[in-house]
């Protein structure tokens, strides 16, 4: 027997049967025939491992176990979409498109409630799958995605290409999973999206394989292969991808509005959760002229359905404390399904919020999800209020430590006055280690609480001393040798994080991620920041008076300065590293618009280089534009630039301008 020929034959059959079953919802063979073919393939590959390939159907069973997910940088950023919330918003979106281009159509698609994924193919074989992450950098989840049957492991394409899609869990798969969770005494997932995200982030691929995830493909990054997005979706279907069957070509914005109305009525009966409709201009040639912001393309928008409002009973009021000491009232509810999630608690924000809405225990209240994410109380149904309900009253003390709470003048929030409150410390530690802040692998909320209650953590600096207690950690239930090693590895690797992450992680009031980056760019070391005056801080980009005062007050505190010195001694990076060159270049201070198709660079790569070399990459041509980098098939932006007398450069000139400056690596030596 020719083993290779038999393996190829089995692979071909199994791929076809998988496609029939998972994409076409039909099958030409029974389960026994499929299972027999799979077992034969696995046996042959076991005896001849040199013939096992990454695209083999046998690789879908998920035998790999990862210690963590490695980071990957996207070739082209995965931008988010701007939102619209009404039919009039959609018409306004259309008016803006009409100002830039003519003779266009739209494609309307369902906005699946899942998580975005980038699928990269080389020579027709799936070589990488990555999460969206922050849009620039995601996580490698290739082994897990290979277990998803609606993702082809091989496609009939020789060139390298990238497909983007949405990983989701059907309502039926979600119900089955939660039944299994309950049967095993585990906590059920709140909604299908959380279940899908939690499944994808399993480190053991065989567990992912059991979760029955799916993927709808929604974008083909190769715009040169087709003229329109609708044609690209047809191409993806021909490649074997699952494309949502509701995807519709719309000739006018009124067709889009009619589509939204139809889907709104259909939504409750769909076999998966959606939270809106995505609308894209169909013709790729129009995209350059329409442009994009740094956050989202202007040629697409996401229509969000109105938040679902549900009635339930307010059974009790509790209070929780955050990392800054803010004490917040919380509504404890009769559990109710809201937009696909089981909701039993909702934030009540502060005392004024409760008094203005006259919220009382025992009321029937209307709940919805703010932005489809956070449950909130909309109003009280006064027609159903029983007699004798007590008006809301803010508690006088901290729910954790019992210290008095204080409402600061001019603010709506109440704060715990105890600087040593355990709840404040735990929340501060959780924030510091969180993914958005210092991103310490293995230091989730549960781990922080366990380590704090076990006496190993009190301050942020204690996180970086855990290595001294490695043997003692082994006494904690659930902390085996491997878990401890992974935790300590995650802590040590985090020390190299860029300085802006540390600024955000410290939990300084009013300082978010964006502000932290702006501050780090202006004050690129901890010493520069600690020595900055209030006036200096006010000069930082997008930093208002309150933020500047908060930063100044933080570093004026002797305890905070002592913490910084501890962290410095423990080896944390205290300097900001920028990708921008710190020398004059032909692009320094220049505004550049990239249009048309370049031979050696994607548009995002060219724009990244422009900014790295000190320039500003813009999507719109104006009198302030200094250069237009024009590739082939450049459209109206080139014409507008010529009319304004803006300097036009081609790709060859662009390369020469880059080459005239030492490389970034040379400049840092």
Shape, please? globular
Low-confidence stretches: 662-669
pLDDT averaged residue by residue? 87
Distance between the termini: 60 Å
> What profile does the largest beta sheet have?
7 strands, antiparallel
CATH architecture assignment of the largest domain: 2-Layer Sandwich
CATH topology name of the largest domain, in short, is D-amino Acid Aminotransferase, Chain A, domain 1
Helix amount, in percent? Answer: 25-40%
- Strand residue percentage: 15-25%
Write down the domain tally.
6
Structural class: alpha+beta
Cα-atom radius of gyration: 28 Å
Number of strands: 22
The CATH homologous superfamily of the largest domain is called DNA ligase/mRNA capping enzyme
Report the CATH C-level class of the largest domain: Alpha Beta
Kindly describe this structure.
The protein is of the alpha+beta class and 669 residues long. It has six domains: 3-61, Helix Hairpins (Orthogonal Bundle); 83-304, D-amino Acid Aminotransferase, Chain A, domain 1 (2-Layer Sandwich); 310-415, OB fold (Dihydrolipoamide Acetyltransferase, E2P) (Beta Barrel), CATH 2.40.50.140; 422-494, 5' to 3' exonuclease, C-terminal subdomain (DNA polymerase, domain 1, Orthogonal Bundle), CATH 1.10.150; 499-569, Orthogonal Bundle (DNA polymerase, domain 1), CATH 1.10.150.20; 591-668, Rossmann fold (3-Layer(aba) Sandwich), CATH 3.40.50. Helices cover 37% and strands 19% of the residues. Strands 12, 13, 14, 15, 16, 17 and 18 form a seven-stranded antiparallel beta sheet that branches. Strands 2-11-10-3-9 form a five-stranded mixed beta sheet. The chain is globular.
């Amino acid at each position: 027997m020719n083993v290779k020929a038999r393996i190829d034959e089995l692979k071909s059959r199994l791929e076809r049967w998988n496609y029939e079953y998972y994409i076409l919802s039909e099958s030409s063979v029974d389960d026994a025939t499929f299972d027999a073919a799979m077992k034969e393939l696995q046996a042959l590959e076991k005896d001849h491992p040199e013939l096992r390939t990454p695209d083999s159907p046998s690789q879908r069973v998920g035998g790999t176990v990862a210690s963590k997910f490695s980071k990957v940088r996207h070739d082209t950023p995965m931008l988010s979409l701007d939102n619209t919330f009404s039919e009039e918003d959609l018409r306004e979106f259309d008016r803006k498109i009409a100002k830039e281009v003519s003779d266009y159509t739209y494609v309307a698609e369902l906005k699946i409630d899942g998580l975005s994924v980038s699928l990269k193919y080389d020579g027709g074989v799936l070589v990488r799958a990555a999460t969206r992450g922050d849009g620039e950098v995601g996580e490698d989840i290739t082994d897990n995605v290979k277990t998803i049957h609606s993702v082809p492991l091989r496609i009939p394409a020789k060139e390298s290409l990238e497909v983007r899609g949405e990983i989701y869990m059907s309502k039926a798969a979600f119900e089955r999973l939660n039944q299994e969770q309950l049967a095993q005494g585990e906590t059920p997932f709140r909604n299908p999206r959380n279940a899908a995200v939690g499944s994808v982030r399993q480190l053991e691929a065989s567990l992912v394989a059991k979760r029955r995830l799916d993927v709808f493909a929604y974008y083909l990054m190769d715009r040169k292969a087709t003229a329109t997005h609708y044609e690209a979706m047809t191409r993806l279907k021909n490649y074997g991808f699952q494309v949502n069957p509701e995807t519709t070509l719309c000739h006018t914005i009124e067709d889009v509005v009619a589509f939204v109305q139809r889907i709104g009525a259909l939504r409750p009966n769909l076999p998966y959760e959606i939270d809106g409709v995505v609308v894209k201009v169909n013709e790729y040639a129009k995209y350059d002229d329409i442009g994009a912001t740094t956050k989202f393309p202007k040629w697409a928008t996401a229509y969000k359905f109105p938040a679902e409002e549900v009635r339930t009973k307010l059974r009790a009021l509790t209070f929780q404390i955050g990392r800054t000491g803010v004490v917040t009232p919380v509504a404890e509810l009769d559990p109710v399904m809201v937009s696909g999630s089981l909701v039993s608690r909702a934030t009540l924000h502060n005392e004024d919020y409760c008094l203005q809405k006259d919220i009382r225990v025992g009321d029937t209240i209307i709940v919805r999800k703010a932005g489809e994410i956070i449950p909130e109380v909309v109003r009280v149904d006064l027609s159903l209020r029983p007699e004798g309900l007590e008006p809301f009253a803010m508690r006088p003390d901290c729910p954790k430590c019992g210290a008095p709470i204080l409402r600061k003048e001019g603010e709506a929030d109440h704060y715990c006055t105890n600087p040593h409150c355990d709840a404040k410390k735990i929340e501060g530690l959780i924030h510091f280690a969180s993914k958005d802040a210092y991103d310490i692998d293995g230091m989730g909320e549960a781990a922080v609480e366990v380590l704090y209650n076990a006496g190993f953590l009190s301050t942020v600096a204690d996180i970086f001393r855990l290595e001294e207690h490695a043997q003692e950690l082994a006494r904690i239930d659930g902390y085996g040798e491997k878990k401890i090693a992974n935790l300590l590895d995650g802590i040590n690797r985090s020390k190299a994080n860029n300085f802006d992450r540390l600024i955000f992680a410290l939990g300084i009031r009013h300082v978010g991620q964006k502000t932290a980056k702006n501050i780090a760019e202006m004050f690129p070391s901890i010493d520069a920041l600690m020595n900055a005056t209030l006036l200096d801080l006010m000069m930082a980009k997008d930093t208002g008076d309150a933020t500047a005062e908060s930063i100044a007050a933080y570093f004026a505190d002797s305890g905070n300065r002592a913490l910084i010195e501890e962290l410095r001694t423990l080896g944390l990076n205290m300097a900001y590293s920028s990708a921008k060159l710190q020398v004059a270049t032909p692009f320094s201070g220049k505004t550049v618009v990239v249009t048309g198709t370049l031979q050696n660079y994607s548009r995002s790569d060219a724009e990244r280089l422009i900014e790295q070399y000190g320039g500003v990459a813009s999507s719109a041509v104006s009198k302030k534009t200094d250069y237009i980098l024009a590739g082939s098939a450049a459209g109206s932006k080139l014409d507008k630039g010529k009319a304004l007398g803006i300097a036009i450069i081609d790709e060859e000139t662009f390369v020469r301008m880059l080459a005239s400056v030492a490389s970034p690596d040379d400049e840092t030596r």
